[in-house]
Design brief:
This protein is mainly alpha-helical. It has one domain (10-187): HUPs (Rossmann fold, 3-Layer(aba) Sandwich). The chain has helices at 10-23, 51-69, 84-97, 102-105, 107-131, 147-162, and strands at residues 35-39, 73-77, 79-80, 142-143, 174-176, 181-183. It has a two-stranded parallel sheet with strand order 1-2. The protein has a two-stranded parallel ribbon with strand order 3-4.
């Protein structure tokens, strides 16, 4: 008989039971009930998950498990977002800490370094999601740079454009001279500056 430890170690049991659930397909949609699906709003691979992610994951897990108990074919799809510009900035900051300049590194080596970062943080995120006991179906994990997903996004944009639901227009945009690309409003930090305000009087 195994001797009981003097202290309770939850991590050992958590890993044991999570592996058991995963290996026995408990998180796969089963039965003939109505489908219920949640796609994890994919976290950016810029860093490890934080408390906001944890809260969001707990709420999704509660809903998915509840629907499973109600007889729904509940599916919770995990995934990660490549977060292009944000990831580039994170990798550049990491290189700068080591005294490495991205431009001196060269394009190919920088891309290679970025893919290494991607693999490392995707794995960290997976481990964090598993450590929380989230009942996601790992056999359906997705990444926003997966070829099929990229094709689906392109196809959707073309279709929406043809149907007149989206259009091209001329607008003032947030241009980043360093990245040579347009940034969304969410990616821009606004700063108030004191300056002159000119009025033009027309005759």
């Amino acid at each position: 008989m195994k001797e009981l430890g003097t202290r309770y170690s939850p991590s050992d049991l958590e890993k044991k039971w999570y592996s058991c659930w995963k290996e026995n397909g408990h998180f796969e949609p089963k039965g003939s009930g109505k489908p219920f699906t949640i796609m994890i709003p994919p976290p950016n691979i810029t860093a490890a998950l934080h408390m906001g992610h944890a809260l969001n994951l707990v709420l999704q897990d509660i809903m998915t498990r509840f629907k499973r108990m109600q007889g729904f074919r509940a599916l919770w799809v995990p995934g990660e977002d490549h977060a292009g510009i944000a990831t580039q900035n994170a990798v550049e900051k990491n290189l700068a800490k080591k005294g490495i300049d991205r431009k001196k590194l060269g394009r190919e080596k920088f891309l290679e370094t970025t893919w290494e970062w991607t693999r490392e943080y995707r794995q960290k995120i997976r481990e964090q999601i598993e450590a929380m006991g989230c009942s996601v179906d790992w056999s359906r994990e997705r990444f926003t740079l997966d070829e099929r997903l990229s094709q689906a996004v392109r196809k959707s944009f073309v279709q929406l454009y043809k149907e007149g639901l989206i259009y091209r227009g001329k607008y003032i945009v947030n241009w980043c001279p360093r990245c040579s690309t347009v940034l969304s409003d969410e990616e821009v930090e606004h700063e108030d500056e004191k300056g002159a305000f000119y009025h033009i009087k027309y005759p």
